[in-house]
Amino acid sequence: MSVDQGTSLPQMAQNVTSQVSEGAEQAKQNLLEQGRQQMDDRTTTAGEQLSGFADVARKVASQLREEGNEPHAKAADTVAQKVEQVGGYLKDADSHKMLRDLEDFGRRQPAALAAGGVVLGLLAARFLKASSAQRSLGSTSPSTGFTSWSQQAPDTGLDGMADQDDSYATPAGTPAGYPSSVGQTTRDPLRG
């Protein structure tokens, strides 16, 4: 942008600011649309998979009827029907409809929505904890890939520390993978 005689510096700054704001808003809208499209694609795929699962449940129900097991066949039919309903909803609904439905449900059943949020939070925390533990227990080495924690450090017993009271501790210096003698303990030089 060149400086005109009639354009002041504050006007130029305001023009640049408005152009940056418009560009940021456009980028935000593009990202939101991509996210919606991806969510629509994934829910459609999930709906198709659930419909396939419902077909399998119906076949199981048919087989159970042939074997004379009517109560279990009815249960399988009920499962198939509910799974088919959810699958159809996921296939047909777009992200806007799902969000509206979730909002409506939250207004009608706020406690259930809060409980669902807590359950999802706990599941997410459990998942993150498990993936964090896997990352911290393994380290990468170029030649062998991931090495487990047990191969990196000797087993120090049930409490994670080798001490006089730990009869299952592996003596210091024992190579990983070799069994330790039962009842053999190591002395911690810091504890005396």
Structure description:
This protein folds into 2 domains: 10-136, no CATH class; 138-192, no CATH class. 66% of the residues lie in helices and 3% in strands. It contains 5 helices and 2 strands, in the order ααααββα. The radius of gyration is 31 Å and the shape is extended. The chain starts with 8 loop residues before the first helix and ends in a 40-residue tail after the last helix.
Short characterization:
Helix content is 66%, strand content 3%. The chain is mainly alpha-helical.
Task: List the defining traits of the structure above.
192 residues; mainly alpha; 2 domains; two-stranded antiparallel ribbon; 5 helices; 66% helix; extended
Low-confidence stretches: none
Give the beta-strand count: 2
Helix share, percent: 55-70%
How many H/I helices? 5
How are strands sequenced across the largest beta sheet? 1-2
Strand content: under 5%
Order of helices and strands: HHHHEEH
End-to-end CA span: 75 Å
Class computed from helices, strands and strand pairing: mainly alpha
Any idea what the radius of gyration is?
31 Å
Number of domains: 2
Spell out the blueprint of helices and strands.
Elements lengths: L8 H58 L3 H23 L2 H14 L1 H28 L1 E3 L3 E3 L1 H4 L40
Antiparallel strand pairs: 1-2
